[in-house]
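Usage

Read records sequentially. Each one opens with the input sequence:
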Amino acid sequence: MNTKYLFITSKIRALLVSATLVTAVLLLFVNQVTFAAISADERRLINIQSRYHSYTQGQLCTTTGSSVTPGQTTGTNADHAGKSILSDAQFTAIKENQSFYEAAAQEADIPWQMIAVIHLRETGLKRINPSNGQGIYQFVSGHGGPYPAGAVDDAEFARQTKLVAEFIKGKANANVEQNRSLTTSATPEAIKDTFFSYNGRSSKYAEQAAGLGFSSESQPYEGSPYVMNRADAKRDPATAPAGTWGQVKRDFGPIEYPANNDYGAFVVYGALAGISTTGNCSDAANGTVRQKVVAIAKQELELWKSGELKPSGNDYHKYTGGASGNWCAWFSSWVYNQAGYPLDSNTPEGRVSLVDNIKIIGEKREKFVYHPVGSYTPQPGDLVIQKEGVSHVNIVIAVDGNKLTIIGGNQGYGQGANHFSNSSVTQYILDINDSVNTGFVSPKAEN
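and closes with the structure output:
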């Protein structure tokens, strides 16, 4: 080779090496600055490879919004293992059909994404009647037929889409009592339960849910692969322990292991609606203070239910800043701080360690108001103060007549030495007039 070219080549090589070194130094500097900005609590969770949700900044909680975009890479289109739930081709097909889904859903008052999920599962988003005579949405009874095989025009697609919207709405009547209200703002539980009803409510899946630690009576849908397949590691056929996560693969047959590999209806729904398998990201990032509080509490509940956070240890230190002790007040104040409306602006990250102090904050009537029992109808996002030997506090998630659905920390284990280390975040239903209730603390903020 000509020595001139050898010289030029060596110079280029030297420049490339220098550029690489500069890039490496810059990247190292950026990483150090970024890591230094992470709190000690976040760093601990990163080190143990657990998710940390910074709800007020929208991290790990980005919603797909009301429309869908090919190439979506938000957290909600990634499953528990980081794999894409919906492909670009599927997003494109859903986008093309979205106006039909929305028109039918608006009339039936249900989320349009539910229709898209059923369409995907039944006929792969195609506008073609299969040869079995059950139509695009596969009405086994032939409801609304006949359905001659072949492609359909816009008018027929709109007609069938309206039929399935009404059909989905009607299926909610078979849900467990607290999940029968299916509207455009339905809870994730009502949506899961309706998908379960759509698929037939098999008692075999209720038993499977119980085997995974869910209630067979109030959460049977959690054991259904049609609804929850690949929602988390214990419901992913690739990672679930042998003999724990299966599926009925033949009409009237037994559960066979492992389950199929397709995503559950609610998992796909989450990729479209901004609701992950751990809660409602849209409300957590963009809702009112009350909506954020409810959404964040639900997401934390799911982290404990899924096993990402565990009792019998110090995972609850996430809420306490590393302190040990009874942590129901810490949990409630942590949730409010994550919602951007701290209970106490004078303490680190808005932490309040004592239930009585939460009551006092409400009695000051500055940012919060305390209401004695009987003087006020609670709303989602309120804090319910309880006293039965010891003080306790929960977050109100839903109100149905005299029944409150509440989520709280430091629950599920009872009393005893270091019981707080063995407790977790749990949800249960409470009567408004229960004798343990002493009052409610509500935020003054409307947005």
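Summary fields computed downstream for this record:
- The mean pLDDT is 81.
- The chain has three domains: 1-37, 75-273, 289-443.
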